[in-house]
Each structure stands twice: as structure tokens, then as C-alpha cells.
Design a protein that fits this description.
The protein has 296 residues and is of the alpha/beta class. The chain is built from 11 helices and 13 strands. α3 links the parallel β2 and β3. α4 crosses α7 and α4 crosses α8.
Length: 296
């Protein structure tokens, strides 16, 4: 699979806007998480919070857009300010999963229409240079016009049933998504040689995202648009309308858009993320990532 040098990868990302999903409570990490200490603000691998680690990892890119529950908006802004980062904080009145949250960011960014790199705030990536290289490959796919979206995938290390898998064709485009297969199927997928773990990180232009959402989930699109247009901007904050947002169906972006694009004839390029990656979703994942973080 294609790779880019770290320096070249970083230089290509200046026009990319990082969109960071920081709305997770981290219920599977209790008691180290709680209402006053949600997962994005934990300091697990450095002196910075997970949110700050994600912002620092995206430094070659433009100013971030952070999506967070409104109760933690000031904390998110403080984390950004401590790093000297600009950007915006979108304040959700309630969690509605990732498809509506990303729609709010796409509406905010639609006029510039620079590629968005969607990133959860609870990932551990051992080598940021490898991340920059994968993001640059995603950017190349969008810039060339060969794909309308690009997703970051990690070579599967073991038949782990906790992850979603992505199977690609010979051209490196997504053939299908397999959501958390059982162990025998996961072993078969790995033996296939063209399957990767789905990191949940993907790149797409705001207008393309909104067009796809409008096509596949028109009700979510319409309500998000009403929430955004009726929202309130205060400095770098966007507060969306609570009464409308509460009516939106909670739906993950994988189900709302990504899994539907290939069957609709729209290409998704897979950009390979080499090196160690971990979704810190539970204690076993946290322990593995913590051990890796202590190894140079």
C-alpha cells in the first residue's frame, strides 16, 4: 500500500479542518470517568487531556472544530486556549450520536468547503507522523477527485471482534463494511489480506457530507439545518436550538452514510494508518495503549 514521508504528509494538510468528536462520557471507563470528569478531559497518556492530545496530533492542519456537550463547552474552550489553538466549539444540548454532530460541523464549514478530517477524541496513536501520512493519503484521494470520501484503516493485527472491519477492492477502495464480526469471520477476513480495522476517522468535504446526509437521512438533515440556522453564535461557540435537536434521531455516521456510499456507487478510498492505534473504549484497551505509550 502507498505511503508518504512524514514531512510531505504534514505539509499537505494545511487546508484540512480537523473536526473532533468530544461528546463521549466514557461509561465503560467508570469509575475513572463520571459526570464531572468525562472521557475527553482525562489525562491518560501525557500532561494533556485526550482532547488536547488529539488537537496536538492535528497540528499540521487548520484550526479545529470541537463538538461537545454544552455542559463542557467552557472546559473544551479552556483546553484549546491552553494550547494556543483557535477554532470553534459546537455545543450540543444532548447526544444524538455522530451523524448529526458531524452535520453541524459541516454546516459551519460549508462555505469554505475544505476537507474535514473527522476524529474521535479518545484514540491513542503512538506515532503521529504515521497519522499525518495516512491523513495526507486521504487528502490526495479527495483532491484527485477519484473518491468522494476517504477513511483511515489500520491493518488488522488479530481477529478482534470488538472492531468494525473494512474490506477493500484491488484499487484500494472500500468494498464493504463488516460491523464487529464474530471471531471465525474475523479470522477469515484477515486471511483475505484486504481487510482493515475501521478507526472511525474519515475525510470528506462539508458539502459532500451534507449532500449524502440529505440523500440517505433527509429528516436528520432537515432538523440539523433548522438547529444550525436557529442557533446562537457567541464568540467561538455555537449553541444549537435545544427544542429541535431533541427531535433528531440518534444515528452513527457509519450507518447513516459511510456504509451506504459504496452501494450507491460512490467511492470511499481507504488510507492505511500504519503503526500502533488504539480506540480507548474500555479498560483492556486503555491498559494496552498505556503499556504502548511507555515504550519509545
Amino acid at each position: 500500500m502507498k505511503r508518504l514521508g512524514a514531512g510531505r504528509g504534514s505539509a499537505m494538510l494545511r487546508d484540512v479542518t480537523p473536526v473532533i468528536l468530544a461528546g463521549g462520557q466514557g461509561t465503560r471507563l467508570r469509575p475513572i470517568t463520571n459526570v464531572k470528569r468525562p472521557k475527553p478531559f482525562l489525562k491518560l497518556f501525557s500532561n494533556q487531556s485526550l482532547l488536547q492530545d488529539t488537537v496536538l496530533r492535528s497540528r499540521p492542519m487548520g484550526d479545529p472544530v470541537v463538538i461537545v456537550h454544552r455542559d463542557y463547552a467552557e472546559r473544551a474552550r479552556a483546553d484549546l486556549d491552553a494550547l494556543g489553538a483557535g477554532g470553534h466549539v459546537i455545543c450540543e444540548p444532548a447526544g444524538r450520536s455522530t451523524a448529526p454532530a458531524i452535520a453541524l460541523a459541516a454546516l459551519l464549514l460549508r462555505d469554505e468547503n475544505k476537507p474535514m478530517l473527522i476524529m474521535p477524541s479518545d484514540h491513542y496513536i503512538h506515532d503521529p507522523a504515521q497519522f499525518h501520512s495516512a491523513a495526507a493519503l486521504a487528502y490526495e484521494a479527495l483532491k484527485s477527485g477519484s473518491s468522494g470520501a476517504a477513511i483511515l484503516g489500520v491493518p488488522a493485527r488479530a481477529p478482534d471482534a470488538r472492531y468494525g472491519y473494512i474490506q477493500i477492492d484491488e484499487g484500494g477502495n472500500v468494498r464493504r463494511f463488516i460491523e464487529k464480526p464474530d471471531r471465525p469471520l474475523a479470522k477469515d477476513l484477515i486471511a483475505d489480506g484486504r481487510c482493515f480495522w475501521n478507526t472511525g476517522m474519515f475525510m470528506m468535504r462539508p458539502r459532500d457530507y451534507l449532500a449524502a446526509l440529505k440523500k440517505f437521512e433527509p429528516d436528520i438533515y432537515d432538523l440539523c439545518l433548522r438547529c444550525f440556522e436557529g442557533g446562537r453564535h457567541e464568540k467561538s461557540f455555537l449553541f444549537v436550538k435545544s427544542d429541535i435537536y431533541s427531535k433528531i434521531k440518534g444515528l452513527a455516521v457509519d450507518h447513516a452514510i459511510m456504509e451506504r456510499l459504496p452501494s450507491a456507487g460512490r467511492k470511499i478510498h481507504l488510507a492505511v494508518l500504519h503503526g500502533y492505534w488504539q480506540d480507548v473504549g474500555c479498560f483492556s484497551a486503555l491498559i494496552r495503549a498505556k503499556v504502548k505509550s511507555l515504550i519509545n
